[in-house]
Amino acid sequence: MADRVEQARAESEAASAEAPSDAGAHPDAAGARSDSERGAGGATREDAAADARRKLDEKSLLEQMGGITGMVYSAIPVIVFVIANSLGNLTIGIWSALASAVLITIVRLARKETLQPAISGFFGVAIAAFIAYRTGEARGFFLWGIWVSLVYGGVFVASVVVRWPLVGVAWNLLNGTGMAWRKDKPSVRAYDIATLACSVVFLARFIVQRWLYAENLTGWLAFTKIAMGLPLFGLALIVVIWAIRRSDRRVKAIVAEQEEAEADLEQRLREKYS
Q: Which of 1, 73, 97, 157 is the most buried (most CB within 10 A)?
């Protein structure tokens, strides 16, 4: 009896050893299924994360430029300069504008707000005040911003002419998404439109403010500097976000098609040589 039990056990173990398991008989197929399932789940998670990151970046785009508070902060030194210059003289206006800029910078740093707008805002006021001091005219306070607008507008237009629209270059470099968008003509065209929208803002500022400067209308210069600042750029920002979303959708679809084609080719090669 015992001999028959031992013999049956031995035959059972031998049969188990000879029978190929699902994973062992088809390692490529099992690996492919595992890779496919993992890839599908991973792609879903990665896509969701990418979409969330893109929406967060778009939402913070205005904040990176200073946000609504940045618009208010940038207007304060201009208003202070005009009022102090009117009530006192140019020297009082210059020092009052500088003092307000220093105070705003300290407040923003204390509140741990975005550092770049605070620092650039202070240096912008400092340069404007220096030019006003050197020219001896209140309108000189606005001269730096006028010519900076012309330079920015020219750079944005030039980037479109050379087929490297600055909005697309800057956005994709900052977000680490590479230059795949440049191979897609509709994406390049969308970024061209967004870049030109930004250039229109800068050039409009230059044209209007340069005319007011020539007419020595300091009060209107202050008004247009505020009105044609962040509020006007907000309109261009709508076009920028449209271009970003259009390009991201197209590039995402192109990458998905390439990955699908590569997976299909890999599967056919496996079937051929398995």
A: 97
Q: What is the mean pLDDT of the chain?
A: 77
Please compute the mean of the pLDDT values over residues 228-237 and round it to a whole number: 82
Residue labelled with tokens 């690996």: 31
Q: Tokens 């979303």 belong to which residue?
A: 245
Are the beta carbons of 116 and 129 closer than 8 angstroms? Answer: no
For 116, other C-beta atoms within 10 Å of its C-beta total 11
CB atoms under 10 Å from CB of 204, counted, come to: 15
How large a percentage of the chain has pLDDT more than 70? Answer: 70
Please state, in angstroms and as integers, the Cα–Cα distance from residue 37 to each residue in 27, 30, 40, 46, 262, following that order: 15, 11, 5, 14, 16
Task: Look at residue 85 and tell me whether its pLDDT is greater than 80.
Answer: yes
The predicted pLDDT at position 229 comes to 80
Question: pTM for this one?
Answer: 0.69
Cα–Cα distance between 159 and 181 in angstroms, integer?
Answer: 15
What confidence tier does 92 reach under pLDDT thresholds 50, 70, 90? Answer: very high
SS3 of the chain: the string is: CHHHHHHHHHHHHHHHHHCCCHHHHCHHHHHHHHHHHHHHHHHHHHHHHHHHHHHHHHHHHHHHCCHHHHHHHHHHHHHHHHHHHHHCCHHHHHHHHHHHHHHHHHHHHHCCCCHHHHHHHHHHHHHHHHHHHHHCCHHHHHHHHHHHHHHHHHHHHHHHHCCCCHHHHHHHHHCCCCCHHHHCHHHHHHHHHHHHHHHHHHHHHHHHHHHHHHCCCHHHHHHHHHHCCHHHHHHHHHHHHHHHHHHHHHHHHHHHHHHHHHHHHHHHHHHHHC
